[in-house]
Amino acid sequence: MLKVLIIVLLICVTISLFSGLVFLFQDTDRSDSKRTLCALGIRVSLASLLILTISYGLYTGELQMGVNAPWHGVVPQAQAKE
Questions:
Q1: In degrees to the nearest 10, what's the CA dihedral of 55, 20, 30, 32?
Q2: How far apart are CA 55 and CA 8, in angstroms?
Q3: Alpha-carbon span 65 to 81, nearest angstrom
Q4: Residue 32, pLDDT score
Q5: In this predicted model, what pLDDT tens digit does every residue of 43-78 receive, in sequence order?
Q6: Less Cβ crowding at N or C end of the chain, within 10 Å?
Q7: pLDDT digits (tens, 9 = 90+) for 23-47
């Protein structure tokens, strides 16, 4: 369930990013438009919620780092025997 929420938040952040870009190009001639600023605020809020969701998942143990990840420095057993 948490992984689905993270994917949905990533998709929403991406949609907000591209909508802000579209608003930026459409509103270049109008100085009173605040649509780009609103899209930025939504994107920052969604990104903060995404970071909090990932932090919660790591804290509760629902999300875990991979044990065999390359940055952990674990040598696989096949290479250790050689």
A1: -20
A2: 16
A3: 26
A4: 81
A5: 999 999 999 999 999 999 898 877 777 777 766 565
A6: C
A7: 989 988 888 888 889 999 999 999 9
Q: In 3D, which of 53, 31, 32, 34 has the Cα closest to residue 42?
A: 34
Q: Give the count of beta carbons closer than 10 Å to the beta carbon of residue 23.
A: 18
Query: What is the token pair recorded at 1?
Result: 């369930």
Whether the CB-CB separation of 50 and 9 falls below 8 Å is answered with yes
pTM above 0.85, yes or no: no
Alpha-carbon span 38 to 77, nearest angstrom: 53
Encoded tokens for 63: 């999300």
CA distances from 61 to 17, 41, 49, 55, 65 (A): 30, 30, 18, 10, 9
> 32 exposed, middle or buried (CB, 10 Å; 0-12, 13-18, 19+)?
exposed
